[in-house]
Amino acid sequence: MASFQLTVNGRDHHVDVPAGTSLLEVLRNDIGDKSAKFGCGLGQCGACVVWINGDPTPACDTAVEYVRGEVRTLVGLGRADALHPIQSAFLELQAGQCGYCIAGIIMSAAALLRDNPRPTRDEVSAALERHLCRCGTHQRFVDAVLAAAGSSTGTRT
Predict the structure, then answer these.
(1) Which of 3, 7, 51, 120 is found 20 to 30 A from 71 (Cα to Cα)?
(2) Residue 6 sits in the same domain as residue 72
(3) Residues of the domain holding 46
């Protein structure tokens, strides 16, 4: 076992886990934050995306010993009484279906809007390209991101 100190959503956590344990396992099993999901385990599907120092990063293939700085998950993006605009848009437009991939998609979308408050449809599509959704609701995701950005093209048709 090795000891690691992590800051997740503004709170410090001390965990004792074997070296090589994924950040996703630590978040879910040791810290109790179940928002990021296990999808492929290879960092390719996007279900486990969290921010590390503001950068969208797959948590499933990031070993805890390599995490430096602040980790932010969907739990730390907004609060029930003050949702992040992207969370509100996803709810309002009912962008999700089963919801398994949503946490990672919202984290990537929020990073896009932080860095580019008025993205085009193509820019949103490119930012969410790495995310897999078996339900086929990608266009609703794009619409929700555009709605959160205040774009008139963000409405469903």
Answers:
(1) 120
(2) yes
(3) 2-76
| 74 or 137, greater pLDDT | 74
Q: In the numeric block, which tokens belong to residue 83? A: 């949702």
Residue 156 reports pLDDT greater than 80: no
| 130 and 93 within one domain | yes
Tokens at 149, concatenated: 């950005």
Report the mean per-residue pLDDT for the chain: 93
Q: Please tell me the predicted confidence (pLDDT) of residue 136.
A: 85
- Cβ(150)–Cβ(138) below 8 Å: no
- Retrieve residue 150's tokens: 């205040």
Task: Kindly state whether residues 131 and 99 are assigned to the same domain.
Answer: yes
Interatomic CA distance for residues 87 and 107, integer angstroms = 10
Cα gap 124→141, rounded to integer Å:
9
Q: Distance (Å, rounded) from C-alpha 138 to C-alpha 153?
A: 15
